[in-house]
Write a structure and sequence with these properties.
- With 332 residues, the protein is α/β, with parallel strands linked by helices.
- 40% of the residues lie in helices and 15% in strands.
- It has helices at 2-5, 9-17, 24-37, 43-50, 66-81, 98-106, 154-167, 183-198, 214-226, 239-251, 285-301; strands spanning 55-60, 85-90, 112-115, 135-138, 149-152, 173-176, 206-208, 233-236, 261-266, 279-282, 311-313, 316-318.
- The protein has a six-stranded parallel β-sheet with strand order 2-1-3-4-5-11, sandwiched between helices. It has a six-stranded mixed β-sheet with strand order 7-6-8-9-10-12, sandwiched between helices.
- Strand 6, helix 8 (183-198) and strand 7 form a beta-alpha-beta unit.
- Helix 7 (154-167) runs parallel beside helix 8 (183-198) and helix 9 (214-226) packs across helix 10 (239-251).
- The longest helix is centred in the C-terminal third of the chain and has 17 residues, at 285-301.
- The N and C termini lie far apart (69 Å).
Length: 332
């Protein structure tokens, strides 16, 4: 392969063992020689030598959520470039599923962990953190854990959601939450409350709780329909809940946005195909995954267990068809 690529054997070895430590041009030349020669690296032998598994564990709350699927794509794209594979731990929102993945990490069958579930998983007697392996939190921060957090500006975006509804003339509000007590939910609700209070709106925000799922939006809509005085501006802390809410109220004859304006949060692909199309805050989901994977690889390669490299990425407001002026209000 060295002869085919026109480089030294040491360079070939570096490309195969530590691809991030060579120039992109050199990497391409060597990998083309690998392809032409049909060579397959002996990963087992290499792993014994380096004491690395070349595998990362990614812990996801629920894989059917399109948010986590998009983040995983970013993780995979970044890890693949460095020769790493992934094991996905799908908790399906059940904490009892954590135990077997804690055992996997404690037995050092992976080199590092990416957490999207908002907490460090616990086993029957020990925590995943006891393994001392590099860990990075994505999507939902884990405060005071000492690990890097790759998140978006949840609180700022939620405050903007309230400000946007106020600008449209809305003065009564509803909020469809995530599970209470989680970092994401706390930040998004605080931000929305801050925006409402800053506008001088004294009425209490109607709040409907549940996990980030379509069914939570359906349940919120059913509660909304039973209200005598209904809010005219609704902010859902995830797009799935917003879509479930819109479908249910429209089926009951409520017009969106004429009778109620709805804003979502995430910017999932489904939001492009609702009727009307969903006004939402788009998260840079792919970039979250890539950024988290890069941070973890840096820790693995530097043999560090902890770092202070927190990242908070901005979101984009997509103004679409589910929001409009409150009844009797004209947009100025």
């Amino acid at each position: 392969m060295a002869r085919l690529a026109g480089v030294s054997t040491a360079t070939v070895s570096r490309v195969l063992a530590n691809p991030d430590q060579v120039r992109e041009k050199t990497h391409k030349v060597v990998m083309e020689a690998v392809r032409r020669s049909g060579y397959t690296p002996n990963s087992a032998a290499r792993n014994l030598r380096t004491r690395r598994t070349m595998t990362v564990l990614v812990v996801a709350p629920r894989l059917t959520n399109p948010v986590f699927a998009q983040v995983l794509r970013g993780v995979d794209d970044e890890l693949t470039q460095s020769g790493y594979g992934i094991i996905v731990a799908n908790l399906d929102n059940q904490t009892e599923r954590e135990v077997r993945f804690v055992d996997l990490v404690l037995s050092r069958q992976v080199d590092g962990v990416l957490l999207m579930n908002g907490r460090i998983p616990q086993g029957s007697k020990r925590s995943m953190g006891d393994a001392g392996l590099p860990m990075v939190a994505m999507c939902s921060a884990i405060p005071d854990s000492g690990i890097p957090n790759i998140v978006v500006q949840d609180r700022e975006a939620s405050r903007k959601a309230a400000e946007y509804l106020v600008q449209l003339g809305h003065r009564t509000f509803g909020y469809i939450s995530g599970l209470p007590g989680t970092y994401i939910e706390t930040e998004r609700f605080k931000g929305f409350q801050e925006g409402v209070l800053a506008a001088g709106c004294s009425e209490k925000v109607a709040r409907w709780e549940g996990p980030f799922m379509f069914s939570t939006g359906v349940a919120a809509a059913e509660a909304f329909l039973r209200m005598r005085k209904r809010p005219t501006g609704v902010f859902a802390a995830c797009d799935e809940s917003a879509i479930g809410f819109i479908k249910t109220v429209r089926s009951a004859g409520i017009r969106v946005p004429e009778d109620v304006s709805v804003i979502g949060f995430d910017g999932i692909e489904f939001a492009d195909y609702t009727e009307p199309t969903l006004t939402t805050f788009r998260q840079p989901l792919h970039e979250i995954g890539r950024t988290g994977a890069r941070a973890l690889l840096s820790m693995i390669q530097g043999e560090k267990g902890r770092t202070d490299g927190d990242v908070r990425l901005p979101l984009q407001l997509l103004e679409r068809g589910t929001t409009g002026p409150a009844l009797g209000k004209k947009q100025g």
